[in-house]
Amino acid sequence: MTELVSQIAAAYEEFQKDAAAQANSGNKAAGTRARKASLNIEKLMKQFRKASLEAAK
Q1: pLDDT tens, residue by residue, 38-56
Q2: What's the whole-number average pLDDT of the chain?
Q3: Which of 19, 22, 36, 54 is 20 to 30 A from 12 in CA distance terms?
Q4: Domain boundaries, given as residue ranges, for the chain
Q5: What is the pTM of this model?
Q6: How far apart are CA 45 and CA 36, in angstroms?
């Protein structure tokens, strides 16, 4: 589960960098990367929720 949390943190850091680049300088490619990263974060968060529920049993 620690590995999963590390993956989430790395994906969020990537998202944050690209989202800021799009918002601050209008970088369209960064916006595309940010949207892709958000989908990856969503997938990782679902995995985390599943792992968390299993650990709570």
Answers
A1: 999 999 999 999 999 999 9
A2: 96
A3: 54
A4: 2-56
A5: 0.86
A6: 14
